[in-house]
Amino acid sequence: MICDNIGVNALDHLTFAGQDTVMLAAQYGTPLYLMDEQRIRQNFRTYREALSAAFGERAAVLYAGKACAFTELYRIAASENAGIDVVSRGELYSAMKAQYPLENACFHGNNKTDEDLFYAVRSGIGLICVDNEEELFALDRIAGELNVIQKILIRVTPGIDPHTYDAVSTGKVDSKFGNAVATGQAEMILREAFRLPHVNVCGVHCHVGSQVFAEDVFERAAEVMLRFMAMIREKCSVTLEMLDLGGGYGVRYVEDDPELRIPEKIAGVAEQIRKICRELDYPVPFIMMEPGRSIVADAGMTLYTVGSVKRIPGYKSYVSVDGGMSDNPRYALYRSRYTVKNASHAEDPDTENFSVVGRLCESGDILQENVSLPSATARGDILAVCTTGAYNYAMSSQYNRLPKPPVVMLNEGSARIVVRRETLEDVTALDV
Ligand SMILES: Cc1ncc(COP(=O)(O)O)c(C=O)c1O
């Protein structure tokens, strides 16, 4: 199986986190998001242990809630002593509802409104990662009004192409995010920030992209950032203390995706950081990483019920399910690949090629093409799309006024609803 929390039981049903997915579908209905709590915790620990092996106390993992955010997930992050990265008042509010300690949170985003900044500063957030000059001046004014000296990072674009999809690549010079080293804009915004009375510049941040597998992307980013920090020390006599390397490690969605060993990757990045710091005679900064996808992706699975199997002779065959791009828009957006299984007949040989499509009124409503499934796949079967913990629930919509599916958290044999299914009343709740 694509991940070791997926198996098959004696009933020939697919299991997830040790539980029968067909029974879970019967109990909670479909479409249904499942999450494996132990896997989330294990993923947090992998990062934490690797970072502390490399940097001791001088490192932190911040969970990027954009990958998947709901109150219970912030409770889990808090109980794993993880920091969080939020990008909206909605994420911040969800964390507050979880009584998450906001001094461990960092607010990101390339266009924070005055309301966002006011809300974040007033909440006592630990860090705000400033994207641009307008935001910097607005934040200084708002922090002044609130009588706070706000700790900040400045977002820098190191000019690294991570060879991932364009839509999720963020570290190139022409990115909409941050301030490029190459154009001198990163230096300029730092100089401005040092002058302002209500912000305290703690360090710099970069994020090169998402679903990154390329060998040395983080090493290269760290080198550019450290050389930039050393240049700032030389020109401005300020030694920046923090370096946030963002998120982005890739996860395995299909068999031919590589398997990343995160502890080894982090050890390699740490080695590079120490080497460059020695060369520059720069103190090793406090290191932060902001994984989202690699914390939750393989802790997720989505279940659907098959409605029809349509074979168009000489053309193609479709399996239609009761969800679609409203609960997982990633194939429609980026042609993202997923492993799809017939959960009701998990051991049957996958002999026929299908496009797995949703129920929304769009030809582009495709969950996955070229999927091999048993020929006997039929109405009523449960289909599982694996590795959907990241950027699925988080990107879901009510397109076609479909109520959003619930999220059920599985933990050591038990199951609990952590986000309930939307009702038709929810769908019309805001209509006046
Ligand atoms: C600033 C920042 N940090 C962290 C992340 C998380 O990336 P990933 O989910 O690939 O780990 C993102 C994702 O785009 C991001 O923009």
Question: What's the structural blueprint in terms of helices and strands?
Answer:
Blueprint: E1 6-8, E2 14-16, E3 19-20, H1 21-28, E4 32-36, H2 37-55, E5 59-64, H3 71-79, E6 83-86, H4 89-97, E7 105-107, H5 114-123, E8 127-130, H6 133-145, E9 150-157, E10 179-180, H7 185-195, E11 199-205, H8 217-236, E12 242-244, H9 262-280, E13 286-289, H10 293-296, E14 300-311, E15 317-321, H11 330-334, E16 340-342, E17 352-357, E18 366-373, E19 382-386, E20 407-411, E21 414-419, H12 424-428
Parallel strand pairs: 4-20, 5-6, 5-13, 6-7, 7-8, 8-9, 9-10, 9-11, 11-12, 12-13, 15-17
Antiparallel strand pairs: 1-2, 2-3, 4-14, 14-15, 14-19, 16-19, 17-18, 20-21
Helix pairs in contact: 2-9, 5-6, 8-9
The site of pyridoxal-5'-phosphate has 16 residues, from helix 10.
Largest sheet entry: 9 strands, mixed
What ions, cofactors and ligands are bound?
pyridoxal-5'-phosphate
Number of domains: 2
Cα separation of the termini = 48 Å
Radius of gyration: 23 Å
Would you identify the CATH H-level superfamily of the largest domain? Alanine racemase
CATH architecture of the largest domain: Alpha-Beta Barrel
Q: How many E strands? A: 21
Judged by helices, strands and strand pairing, the structural class is alpha/beta
Helix content: 25-40%
* Poorly predicted runs: none
Q: With helices defined by DSSP (H or I, 4 residues minimum), what is the helix count?
A: 12
Overall shape:
globular
Give the mean pLDDT: 96
- Highest CATH level, the class of the largest domain: Alpha Beta
